[in-house]
Structures are given as C-alpha cells and as structure tokens.
Specification:
With 325 residues, the protein is of the alpha/beta class. It has 9 helices and 16 strands. Bound molecules: aspartic acid.
Length: 325
C-alpha cells in the first residue's frame, strides 16, 4: 500500500478563517479546520493532515518577526514527520512571511505552501475554498521551497507582493532564475532578532525630517526610492544618510516600481545614495528587502558584512538575469 501524503497545516489566522463581528472581521477557531474536513471528504480522505494552530490566531497586520521565528521553528521541528507544509495566513503580510521563511529555512527540502483568501470561508463567493483546494494539491506537486498558492497561481515566496486589496487575484510575483529556497545540506533555522527597521518612502516635497529621524534612531532603514533609484536633492536627506554611515547602520534602497528595481548610479539624482554607501536592493521587493535586512542584522555585524549579506543572492529573492518561460 502506498503511504498517504502527510501534510502539516500551520494555521496562523487571516481572513480565510475569520467571521464578522461588530468591530469587523476577526479570526475564529474552527473555521479552517471545518473547511479542511470538508475538502478532505471531497478528496476521499487521501491525505494525512495534522493541523497545528498558532494561537492566538491573528490578523496578519499584527505579525512580527517573532511570528516568523515561531513558524520557522514549527517547520524545522516537524519537517521530518511530514511530506509538505501548508500555512494558512492573512494576506496583508503574506509576502513578508513568505520572504522571511524562504530566508530563514536553510536546507529546506520540502514544499511550504502559503495561502489565504480575500473573502472568509463562510462568506458568499469565498475564494478561500479554491485557494485551500489548490494549496492542498500544490503540497503534492510543488518543488521544495516556499510558495504562495493564490487565485490559481503558484508564486515564488520571496518574489511575491500583494497587489490588490479586494480582488481575488490579489498577488503577483516576478520571476527568478533560482528556486525559492536557501541551499543547505541539513534543515536549519536562522532566527530574526529585535532590530528596529524603518521603512521610509520619498515623495515630491516630502518632509525629510522623517528620514533624519530614521537614520538617527533605527538599526537599519529600507528607503523606498523612485524608479531606478532616484531621490530628491535635499540637504536633510543627505545629512541623514551621512549620519547613518557614521553610525554604521545599513540603508537599503528599493524601488517603488513593481518591476525592474533600482540600479544606483544610473542617474545623478541618485548619486547621493552611492556617496553614502546605501545598499542597492536591485529588484528585491520591499517585503524581501525588509526581511533580508532583518535577518542580516540578526546574523552579521559591521556595515561591510551587512552590505555583503544583503547584496548576495540567498534564496531566489532577485530577478532572473534573462527572461525565463
Ligand atoms: N487583514 C487580513 C489579514 O491579513 C487580510 C486577509 O487575510 O485577506 O489577516
């Protein structure tokens, strides 16, 4: 007899398992569990599913790097006794979690499939049923690595972003020439620490005192620039970047555009970033850059080592050098 495919389902919360309350949608115990029972009956109970709830179930708006550590620890502790891992999660920070897990799990040799939904399983026309059904199927077919199964698409964990706040087809991911996994002989967890990272966007005429505050008080900064890495010509910004360099804190530039990324030095309007040792995030998503900076701050010390960590490809978080089908 062929042994049944064993799935570890880690339920964290999110709309998929929420119910309406007077203050809006909130996670409720049992919703996802009942849906899984129903889908399993539909499939003829062909899978062994162990459900572990990470309580308290949360709206993923409340997720922190401590939650990424907890998820990664569950996966490392239980990976040997399952064939694949399925994670049900809120969509708001799903792409942060998928990026973080890809980076944290060295030597991952099983598929980790994250999913969620835009409409609760109990709501009219919920996309949760199709997403959960597809995610169960993906646990049997996906390559080892971290993936998001959403709206019929299997997306690379460290390349994905949420692109719509209400439509079912809410995620997209860019390509990469590498699988979404961190190479390694044995499965081991890299932990996130408690570094304070600021995410600072620029805008025409924006108040650059905010940038200065981040450069003076944070442990690291993700600076969301325009296009291929330009920023306004502003003395407060320049002084802030100089102080960040003096303090030895890393600043990573990413682009507000959906694809293409930064290429520091292309325009004179971004030269100030290179002058002060800003790290070129290239085409990492903001989510991937944030998670990678968090992991860098927990793993290495010194501005040169931090820069090297963030710039070196780790787990398919950068784009493909050539278009791939
Ligand atoms: N606010 C919800 C969450 O991220 C949104 C969702 O799951 O679709 O938990």
């Amino acid at each position: 007899m062929i042994p049944r495919h064993r799935i570890l389902l880690l339920h964290t919360g999110g709309t998929i398992g929420m119910v309406p309350t007077a203050r809006g949608l909130k996670p409720e115990l049992g919703v996802v569990e009942h849906a899984v029972d129903r889908l399993m009956a539909e499939r003829g109970n062909d899978l062994d599913i162990e459900i572990v709830r990470l309580e308290p179930l949360i709206d993923s708006a409340n997720a922190t790097p401590a939650d990424w550590n907890r998820l990664a620890a569950e996966i490392v502790a239980r990976a040997d006794s399952c064939d694949a891992i399925l994670i049900t999660h809120g969509t708001d920070t799903l792409a942060f979690t998928s990026s973080a897990l890809t980076m944290a799990l060295e030597g991952l040799h099983k598929p980790v499939i994250l999913t969620g939904s835009m409409i609760p399983l109990g709501g009219d026309n919920s996309d949760g049923w199709a997403n959960l059904r597809d995610a169960l199927a993906a646990t049997q077919t996906a390559e080892p690595g971290v993936w998001i199964q959403f709206a019929g698409k299997l997306l690379r964990g460290p390349r994905a972003r949420k692109i719509h706040s209400s439509a079912p087809d809410a995620f997209s991911a860019m390509l990469s020439d590498r699988p979404p996994r961190r190479e390694g002989e044995v499965l081991r967890q890299h932990r996130f620490g408690s570094a304070r990272i600021a995410v600072v966007p620029v805008a025409p005429g924006c108040d650059m005192r905010v940038v200065g505050f981040a450069m003076d008080h944070s442990d690291g900064v993700v600076l969301r620039c325009y296009g291929s890495g330009t920023v306004p010509d502003d003395l407060l910004l320049e002084q802030g970047l100089a102080r960040a360099a003096d303090r030895g804190i890393p600043v990573v530039a990413v682009s507000e555009t959906l694809a293409g990324g930064t290429s520091l030095g292309h325009y004179a309007a971004g030269a100030v970033l290179l002058d002060h040792g800003v790290i070129d995030g290239r085409d990492m998503t903001l989510e991937a850059a944030y998670a990678k900076l968090a992991l860098a701050l927990a793993s290495v010390t010194g501005r040169a080592a931090l820069t090297n960590f963030v710039e070196t490809p780790l787990c398919g978080e950068f784009g493909a050098p050539f278009p791939v089908p």
